[in-house]
Design a protein that fits this description.
The structure is a single chain. The protein contains eight helices and seven strands. By secondary structure, the protein is of the alpha/beta class. The protein has one domain: P-loop containing nucleotide triphosphate hydrolases (Rossmann fold). Strand 2, helix 3 and strand 3 form a beta-alpha-beta unit. The N and C termini lie far apart (49 Å). Bound molecules: guanosine-5'-triphosphate and magnesium ion. Magnesium ion binds next to helix 2.
Length: 220
């Protein structure tokens, strides 16, 4: 008989093993992978659409969604090589489903692979997918205490994006308070305040990401 703690332990260690296989494959193919996590509706898809048009690299995407193929179709409309993953009732992607998606993608033609995780600020943090970089995005409309309420995911990301600053006043939220929470939780993360829709802060994200990809040193 296995107790619940032991089963959890097995799930995480199996996930870690497959994540390492994914990272090895991605590195062999010289494809830099970004795990984009964040709240529902915070701007994950629009960020990938805009960055992939700005970056001087060939981009591709994995669109993680509970049931629909709407985001996958948005990426395909932008001519990005893309695979959609439906997780059903699961609130996060894991390394195993990503491993299957990687088999379907033309990795030799993709320099940068964006993996849009399922909209959720809790479960995705526990599942390494084999990425090289983690970004988390929230928007002011989730309330300006959203970062303080979900510390783990922010502690484990390389960049924290606070989006929809254009409507901060209308929703009575302080993007600066959110940035202070982000810096406090993770002093090593780069923090951006953005309005991806209008373009505020996008160039800064693009510059930071481009530097990260170049300093990886393995790009095609
Ligand atoms: N006002 C405003 N709206 C934005 C901004 N960024 C995104 N949106 C809007 O927010 C909505 C959700 O954007 P998406 O990019 O689909 O968000 P998402 O995180 O991919 O959403 P899910 O995949 O459903 O979790 C869309 O209607 C966007 O136009 C922004 O900076 N300001
Ligand atoms: Mg989306």
């Amino acid at each position: 008989m296995h107790g619940p703690l032991e089963i959890n332990e097995n799930i995480f260690s199996l996930n870690k093993r497959i994540a390492e296989e994914n990272r090895k494959l991605l590195t062999e193919k010289k494809t830099f992978a970004v795990n984009l996590m964040g709240a529902i509706g915070s701007g994950k898809t629009i960020l990938i659409e805009k960055l992939s048009a700005m970056l001087p690299f060939k981009c591709g995407a994995i669109a993680g969604d509970v049931v629909s193929d709407l985001d996958a179709n948005r990426f395909k409309e932008k001519k990005l090589p893309c695979v959609g993953i439906n997780t059903g009732k699961s609130c996060h992607l894991d390394a195993h489903v990503v491993q299957h998606a990687l088999q379907e993608l033309p990795l030799e033609k993709i320099d940068v692979l964006f993996i849009e995780n399922v909209g959720n600020l809790i479960c995705p943090a526990d599942f390494d997918l084999g990425e090289h970089l983690r970004i988390v995005i929230v928007s002011v409309s989730e309330g300006d205490d959203i970062i303080a309420k979900h510390p783990v995911i922010f502690k484990e990301s390389h960049a924290i994006i606070i989006n929809k600053v254009d409507i901060a006043e209308a929703v009575n939220a302080s993007a600066e308070k959110m940035a202070t929470d982000a810096h406090r939780l993770n002093p090593n993360a780069k923090v951006f305040i953005t309005s991806i829709k209008t373009g505020t802060g996008l160039k800064e994200i693009k510059k930071w990401l481009e530097e990260k990809i170049k300093s990886w040193g393995t790009i095609k």
